[in-house]
Amino acid sequence: MSAAATLPAPSAEGVVPASKYHLTFGRVLRSEFVKFRTLRSTVWTLAITIVVLVGLATLFAAIFRANLDNIGSTGAEAATTPIVTGVGFGQLVLAVLGALTITGEYSTGMIRSTFSAVPTRTPALVAKAVVVVVSALVVTAIATAITVAVITPILSGSPIALDLSDPDVLRVVVGTPLYLAGIALLALALGILIRNSAGAIFGVIGLVLVINPILSGIPVKWVNDWAQYLPSAAGQQLLTVHPTNDPAPWPGLLVLFAWGVVLFGIGVFLAKKRDA
């Protein structure tokens, strides 16, 4: 005679008590990853990121190789320029991805279901941040590896050959996915704060591409000094072969992530106070 299976006792309405199930961060993270990867926009955006990073770097490497006599710089600076050129456009794509990851839920009303499933809200938002940052880091690392594999033979045997044994070149290559992951986090944070797709995208583009050139052009020393600590200005020190401004390359990356973390923290605080 087989033993009878022991099942949770149903409630008066015939429903298994909710206390039998536990909400864990791992399950929230898995849920957010499923939502993230099943969106068609996510697949397209990440694919476009790879195409932009690899395509533009390859194009500029070919142009540089064909016009060696007209290039004003040589060595590591010129060799890494194609990679950095791709980053300049790739950050726009990841800014859109980071913002839409949260603002898309606000526009469709799905955020109410998310916050109903995770009443404290913080784990859901932290899980979104982990998914966005890790996805951006992995995809851009793959794109950077492909870029290096493609442009190395194009530039080899020339004064602008890509030499990975050069620590400055290696820093740019390693720093590229780290910088782009920081931009994705910054975009997500602004999306949580603004809760509107157009507003969040405009905000991150303004913060990354517009404000710094404006402040840098003001002939006031303290304004110029402060502008160097804006997110993109600080983060791009990591992608500069011979940086001349403060902060130094790796501290500059920390400044970029500090912007993202602080804005994300403010966004989480406000999200817990606001109605969904």
Automatic annotation (TrEMBL):
Entry annotated with the keyword Membrane: yes
Keywords of the record: Membrane, Transmembrane, Transmembrane helix
Membrane-spanning ranges: 43-63, 83-104, 125-152, 172-193, 200-220, 250-271
PANTHER family to which the protein is assigned, alphabetical: INTEGRAL MEMBRANE PROTEIN-RELATED (PTHR37305), MEMBRANE PROTEIN (PTHR37305:SF1)
The protein's name in its UniProt record: ABC transporter permease
Organism: Luteimicrobium xylanilyticum
